[in-house]
Amino acid sequence: MKQVKRYRFFVVMLGIALGMLLFNHDLGVKVFTLSTDSVLGMLGVLPPIFILIGLLDVWVKKETMVKYMGKDSGIIGILLGFFLGSVAAGPLYGAFPVAGVFLNKGSRLANVLIIVGAWSTMKIPQILFEWASMGLKFTLIRFVMDIFGVLIIAYSMEKLLTPKDQQEIYALAKKMN
User: Fold this and answer.
1) Under a CB-based contact definition with an 8 Å cutoff, are residues 94 and 43 in contact?
2) Is 54 inside any structural domain?
3) Residue 11 pLDDT
4) Which domain holds residue 104?
């Protein structure tokens, strides 16, 4: 019964898509084509990310992660979070399994949120493209605003979450691993 609950959204969406296929064949075909393309795109990105996560999990000791990304990591944890998020490859949904590994290894929640924030807004190829198409001034303004925005969001979230909420996040990350 638990498996049925887990996949009920998928089953409902599949039913809606099949209904579209019956009532509006062209739209239904388009829905299935786009869905297939999305799934294939994810399957092309996720395996390399999972391999890298596995290597990170095996190669980096928990003590090392706590030292550089833990509660007392200070500016090193912040800079490392920005660096890891900026050089990451793949779409944003690839950041969440990475975040889970970092949480399991004892990283500070704010530092993990910095990684996710930098992953979504500050990737190096994105910055280079912006520079070429929008100009240096625009790129620098947006980059500086992103730094402050990511920091404000990461530390605000850490402060707003109760210790119980944070424990639940760490427990969920451990459960997913």
Assistant:
1) no
2) no
3) 86
4) 60-176
Same domain assignment for residues 21 and 72: no
| Residue 88 main-chain phi, psi, to 5 deg | -65, 150
Q: Alpha-carbon distance 68 to 64, whole Å?
A: 6
Alpha helices in 88-135 (DSSP H): 95-104, 109-121, 124-134
Q: Looking at the structure, tell me whether residues 146 and 168 fall in a common domain.
A: yes
What is the percentage of the chain residues whose pLDDT exceeds 90? 47
Give residue 45's identity as a one-letter amino acid code.
V
**Residue 28 shares a structural domain with residue 95:** no
**Residue 112 phi, psi (nearest 5):** -70, -40
Q: What is the mean pLDDT of residues 9-19?
A: 87
The token pair that represents 164 in the structure block: 């119980």
Q: Which two tokens stand for residue 166?
A: 């944070």
Residues 6+ positions from 5 with CB-CB distance below 8 Å:
none
User: 143 by DSSP, 3-state: which?
Assistant: helix
Residue 79 is inside which H or E element, if any? Answer: helix 74-87
Tokens, residue 106: 């004892």
